[in-house]
Amino acid sequence: MKIYSFEKLECWQHARRLAVWIYHSTKNFPPEEKFGLISQMRRAAISIASNIAEGTSRKSSKDQSHFSTVAYSSTIELLNDIIISNDLLFLSDNIYNEGRHLIERQTFLIAQLRKSQDIAKLSKPTKQPKLN
């Protein structure tokens, strides 16, 4: 079986673990949140991993960086959601702290990925105009 480049990225592997953690952490939320916070949090978590994966399929560093930025934004959105879930007592303090730690690690990994993409952007030679 072929292993794609995104599967080798620690950033994607961690995002995958974070998504699974979110699914487990939201399964005991109140049923009325099925189409509210549960859906929102799960979609944000999946978006993180999906955008990291999709970015690896892009040719230019600029496009890759765009998808990393979207993944970072989804991670911050997810942080907001777990804060509110804790405020509403849907997440215990222990689970909230665990989630916050996972999110802090995810933002660090995405920032490192973006940094490497920015370096790749800068190191590409620019096309020189043809002199006639």
Number of strands: 0
What is the strand content? under 5%
Compressed to H and E, one letter per element, the order equals: HHHH
What about the largest sheet?
A: none
- The CATH architecture comes to Up-down Bundle
Helix-strand category = mainly alpha
Helix amount, in percent?
A: over 70%
General form? elongated
Keywords:
132 residues, mainly alpha, de novo design (two linked rop proteins), 4 helices
Q: What does this entry look like structurally?
A:
The chain is mainly α and 132 residues long. It has one domain (5-121): Up-down Bundle (de novo design (two linked rop proteins)), CATH 1.20.1440. 72% of the residues lie in helices and 0% in strands. It has four helices and no strands. Helix 1 (10-26) packs antiparallel against helix 2, helix 1 packs antiparallel against helix 4 and helix 2 (37-56) runs antiparallel to helix 3. It is elongated and about 70 Å long. The termini are far apart.
